[in-house]
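Re: [ENG-882] Designed sequences occasionally contain unexpected residues at chain ends

Forwarding the minimal case from QA. Structure tokens:
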């Protein structure tokens, strides 16, 4: 089946960047992970130093040289939570074909002297915590862009995904990008006084932060905002700003969908010294006013009163094609990428499986397991090809068919 005349075509096609024939909505690939990658040190609110790290998940056997990258930011009210909270989702995204990183960022702010955060000394404390988190997220983005050659990741197809405080962080990282947008409370302001102790509040620096100023910017293609908000909707300036997918419950008691103080529905004095925050319902008014195109903005409003996603599987099923269309449209100049060009039957199979192509002309193929090991490969010029799976271990495989139009991918199961 090998045809030496087809090898240059095969190699040229495999050297494509993002492979938009991959659906990016189902688990096709094995996953490799690097945990605890250090991306910088930064000063905490109380003068200590945080060692900031991330976990990076990448697909195995996907063949991409410019993988779309999702940076995930955990929640926890800007005072708690851990990057490992998003490990399972990162692994799922990597099995779909994404590179996915879950990051740590600086946590904490001064309480009111009697009670610790989320009770706050004044509204500036929450604003400063959100600003520090945003700076760290931007530093992580630049860090990952700086090692894109090592990870085969894109420097343009970068999407932020955050939940709760992580979504607040992601929103500000994406949209607070002008020096004059820096909140006044993030410059040098008056000290915090707790009984007889005084704690300084120095200038927090520029909106980009100091981490990993390596020549890359921290721009992103879009944001997935799960029940988060922004301090000022004016940070979103034009319909050319990063795309946005928002999810919120209408009566969320922690981060309100409208314009409310955090923990507004819980009370107990928690909201009293926290700033007003604009949730997804108020952000929706801004997006409509700016005229964001439908493919760049989607809002799922659920009638409910919880600070969570009511149906994670269903909402993720909305998010995945929305993200895919962002980078496939940007890469190919069209929202309809190269379709799958073959049919596999029977599937599952315990012996011979047939590949029937819808296109004519020479093509290459390979069959890989979840660890990226190639079990079968070759080239052909016909529209029909039979593969003998009888010598292969039972389990799922990834079949790639490579032709002049692109790379098509299908899952094949050996019974």
């Amino acid at each position: 089946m090998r045809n030496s005349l087809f090898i240059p075509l095969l190699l040229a096609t495999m050297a494509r960047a993002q492979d938009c024939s991959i659906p990016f909505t189902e688990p096709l690939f094995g996953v490799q992970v690097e945990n605890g990658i250090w991306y910088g040190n930064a000063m905490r609110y109380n003068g200590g130093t945080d060692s900031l790290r991330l976990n990076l998940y990448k697909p195995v056997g996907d063949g991409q040289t410019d993988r779309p990258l999702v940076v995930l930011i955990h929640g926890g009210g800007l005072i708690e939570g851990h990057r490992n909270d998003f490990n399972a989702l990162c692994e799922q995204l990597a099995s779909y074909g994404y590179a996915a990183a879950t990051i740590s960022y600086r946590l904490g702010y001064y309480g009111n002297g009697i009670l610790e955060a989320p009770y706050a000394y004044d509204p500036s404390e929450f604003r400063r915590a959100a600003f520090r988190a945003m700076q760290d997220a931007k530093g992580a983005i630049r860090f990952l862009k700086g090692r894109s050659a090592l990870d085969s990741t894109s420097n343009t197809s970068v999407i932020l995904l955050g939940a709760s405080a992580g979504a607040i962080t992601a929103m500000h990282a994406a949209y607070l990008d002008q020096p004059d947008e820096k909140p006044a409370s993030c410059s040098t302001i008056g000290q915090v006084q707790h009984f007889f102790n005084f704690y300084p509040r120095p200038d927090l620096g520029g909106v980009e932060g100091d981490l990993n100023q390596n020549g890359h910017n921290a721009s992103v293609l879009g944001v997935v905002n799960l029940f988060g908000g922004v301090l000022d909707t004016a940070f979103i300036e034009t319909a050319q700003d990063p795309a946005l997918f928002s999810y919120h419950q209408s009566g969320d008691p922690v981060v309100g969908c409208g314009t409310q103080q955090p923990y507004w529905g819980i009370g107990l004095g928690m909201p009293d010294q926290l700033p007003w925050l604009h949730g997804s319902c108020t952000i929706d008014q801004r997006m409509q006013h700016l005229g964001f195109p439908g493919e760049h903005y989607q809002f799922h409003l659920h009638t409910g009163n919880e600070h969570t996603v009511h149906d994670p599987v269903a909402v993720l099923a909305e998010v995945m094609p929305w993200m895919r269309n962002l980078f496939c449209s940007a890469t190919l100049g069209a929202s309809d990428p190269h379709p799958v060009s073959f049919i596999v039957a029977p599937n599952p199979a315990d012996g011979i499986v047939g590949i029937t192509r819808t296109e004519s002309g020479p093509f290459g193929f390979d069959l890989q397991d979840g660890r990226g090991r190639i079990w079968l490969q070759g080239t052909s010029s016909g529209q029909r090809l039979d593969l003998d799976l009888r010598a292969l271990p039972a389990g799922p495989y990834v079949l790639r068919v490579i032709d002049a139009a692109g790379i098509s991918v299908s899952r094949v199961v050996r019974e």
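QA comment: On inspection the terminal residues look reasonable. Helices lie at 7-14, 87-96, 123-146, 148-151, 165-175, 280-290, 312-332. Proposing we downgrade this to a documentation issue.
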